[in-house]
Amino acid sequence: MGGTFDPIHHGHLVAASEVAARFGLDEVIFVPTGQPWQKSMREVSPAEDRYLMTVVATASNPRFTVSRVDIDRGTPTYTVDTLRDLREMYPGAELYFITGADALGSILSWQNWRTLFGLARFVGVSRPGYDLNVEHLAPHLSDLPDEAVSLVEVPALAISSTECRERVRANRPVWYLVPDGVVQYISKRHLYLERATAAESVA
Ligand code: ATP
Ligand code: MG
């Protein structure tokens, strides 16, 4: 499961857990993206902070692990590179790429989907506010083999990292939206505060 994870929240964890149970997966590997040049006009937190929050959030689940492949590659992240690297690290494994309804459409519309489907099966999970319908997500994919993309309903958690960041900035709670250790990590590292505020709180 790839993501910016800035920060990781319970929507990500529930989606991973549901898909793992549905498909009998041995392991879910969370793969935080490398440092993008730009993500929709905002600065993304340092990769090491996003990586560590992901480690903290997944530590208690023996089937959840975190990979640094995208962070260590040092270039903007493309799913095709992630999947190629993971295939090399797990030869013979059957890979599934887990993604939310919002991200599935964009991955499949602008990346080379023929190559992608040769590397992994794709699992799109429901997400409040987004349509989980493959004809709408990617109309050109209607003639795909059935196993290439599966759509899975997961318990609806209307949580986004964007809202978590806005809450921290506004001094509102993120308890129970993200794991407890992530709440503590955000506060310890002064993440998501305005720059001036962050500098003051360090001083
Ligand atoms: P941001 O608001 O910064 O975009 P986000 O909450 O969308 O953050 P990402 O790191 O962008 O989180 O998402 C990683 C993956 O998890 C994506 O495939 C996304 O669709 C999926 N995802 C995120 N939140 C949810 C949720 N609440 N329910 C289901 N899937 C989710
Ligand atoms: Mg997102």
From TrEMBL:
EC number annotated for this UniProt entry: 2.7.7.18
Catalytic reaction equation(s): nicotinate beta-D-ribonucleotide + ATP + H(+) = deamido-NAD(+) + diphosphate
Entry keyword set: ATP-binding, NAD, Nucleotide-binding, Nucleotidyltransferase, Pyridine nucleotide biosynthesis, Transferase
Boundaries of every Cytidyltransferase-like domain copy: 1-167
NCBIfam families: cyt_tran_rel (TIGR00125), nicotinate (nicotinamide) nucleotide adenylyltransferase (TIGR00482), PRK00071.1-3 (NF000840)
Protein name per the record: Probable nicotinate-nucleotide adenylyltransferase
Family: Belongs to the NadD family.
Tagged with keyword Nucleotide-binding: yes
Single Gene Ontology MF annotation: ATP binding
UniProt keyword Electron transport, yes or no: no
Protein function: Catalyzes the reversible adenylation of nicotinate mononucleotide (NaMN) to nicotinic acid adenine dinucleotide (NaAD).
One of the GO biological process terms: NAD+ biosynthetic process
Pfam families linked to this entry: CTP_transf_like (PF01467)
Associated pathway: Cofactor biosynthesis; NAD(+) biosynthesis; deamido-NAD(+) from nicotinate D-ribonucleotide: step 1/1
Organism ancestry: Bacteria, Bacillati, Actinomycetota, Actinomycetes, Mycobacteriales
